[in-house]
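User: Show me a protein chain along with its predicted structure.
Assistant: Here is one chain, sequence first, then structure tokens.
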Amino acid sequence: MTQPQTNPELELARDFIEQTGTHLFLTGKAGTGKTTFLHELREHSSKRMIVTAPTGVAALNAGGVTLHSFFQLPFGPILPEQSQQPIYRFSKDKINIIRSLDLLVIDEISMVRADMLDGVDAVLRRFRNGRLPFGGVQLLLIGDLHQLPPVVKPDGWSLLQAHYASPYFFSSLALQRCGYTGIELKKVYRQSEEQFIALLNAVREERWTPDVLSALNERYQPVEQIEQVERYITLTTHNRKADVINRQNLGRLTGESRKYVAVVDGDFSESIYPVDFQLELKPGARVMFTRNDGSEERLYYNGKIGVVESFDAGAVTVYCEEDDQRIRIEPVTWENTQYRINEQTKEVEANVTGSFTQIPLRLAWAITIHKSQGLTFDRAIVDAQEAFTTGQTYVALSRCRSLEGLVLSSRVSAPNYSADDALLQFDADLEAKAPNQAQVQEAKRLYQYQLLADCFDFSEEVSLLKRWLNSQNRIANLIANLPAEQLTAQVAEFEQKVAIVAGKFQPQLQSYCAEGIAAENEALSERLKKAGGYFIAQLQPLFNQVEAFHFEADNKADEKRLRQIVDKLQERVQLKLAVFTQLASGFEPALLLKARAEASLLLAKKAVKKPKAPALTEADVPFPALFEQLRQWRKDTADENGAPVYTVLQQKALVQIVCHLPGSSNELLQLQGIGPATVERYGEGVLAIVSDFCAAEAIDPTEYPKAALPGD
């Protein structure tokens, strides 16, 4: 980071994110390094993360995606009962990302409503662990609640206020269930004057004392009286006001005009254009760079001010007085991204879906306060007369490096609304509950313990095995390649050799972890390595058996439910195999998380191609080919009738026909599930298929018993 590495709050935040599973709200005044922290985290974190933001511009600046697009949230209020009802279908790629996620970053959290955060919670629980808030994903929420607030229209709040104490994110029902910690960055890097910092703090906290108002209004000066006004940028509340100022100033210049038209490729919405699609410039035009220089020279940065000196078809030369430099700037490209899984590395990465190429300049006699967020100026004229919140005024004032460089174009007065009680209480709670290094260590200890405890918890696997057994016993006319008796024995063996053994180790694990950090305990490390080998040996045969399990049932709803149970069991066992394989070589939290995520992706890839139902073998019926002919006949007949296949003949009846090879209507009637009406309607066709098959295969049907199978 560009800030000193000794910043205690930044170090604390880094430890919470990297070494624990605690949800973190990272806040701080303007210029305290929140954005820099996020950029560094993206570069160096071992956790699988995505970065989101509430608006397209904020997402573009953060190098992420919008909350609405990724989680497919509606734009209106999301009531608690609505958030539980899936509205949209999610792509397989997006589901895979969600299931393999460790960390969700939401930048500019101040603009996120409580109901939106609950909508995110519902999506995460839908595709992950439905019992845990946010599906067990860690949250990093970045922003300053004293800057831009969430947008809530009166009619929307009338619906939400019955469920939420306030519209702010901290009133989210899911967030209140799981708890979180908050860290406020204290060191201000943008400003260094104590008086100016104190004034900004007073505005941020809405302490409009006479002394504060007097000190601010000393900076008031009519625009026409400002010396060297061309060196200032005006920050105003609305686009229309900024556009008027820029057009008027550009119109006063007499030189040749040139227009630069952006090139848009792929998916890049007009609402997130980072600069004007058509940029008109003249020599002498005041401009602001809208990108950081990606070259080694680092000649310009987002927010740097200069004056157009000359231009040609492909570039613009800008003179910057602050460092007496002439910079030739060519078009650059902004990329719109979506997250996807890299098939080779299995990592979550940003995939470019569209681009916007333009000269990275904006007319800069004036810009809106909203667009100034995150920028820093040496000289600024603030027009906050129509500011709709104190937060907007604070954003504008805090863009300036010094009080000397700040000019107010209108006097500031105390707002005619009171401070938000919910916000004041939240601030007080945040300050009172500020964490320390000891709490980080405790959170780290608990996090590692929970990671390991989850590895040795087989309650869900036992439950799925028992549900499998119950379903197999309950479903009528089920044909399966694993008899119920064998499955019963398998369930009992799993409980004895896996679940009970793991359960006995849980108290020992808790004792080990109570002593300190699990990853630093050598004795525990050795136990985990041995446990890894033992459980791999127990789980691999079960996984092979589950993977090879095939079945068919007449009732497709029953068949679907059993398939879901078996698929879920296969997923759980594969995950356990992955984590115990990792534990067998030593416990390292980051590697354990990676192994777990990659196992989820491997299963998702296998699930893309649904396996065909296998043909029955000699172990199931004596003549699989005849069975297939009868099944095809049954399907064709059902299609003609527009009815389910089991209304023609049940699966069990087909099996008995193949085993007994009936040669007459009377012999058909001896078989269970075949009555007079069935024989009258379909008997002739069935007997013809059996007869033709026997003739073709030189089979004597009289050699086969004509009674029902034993046990039928």
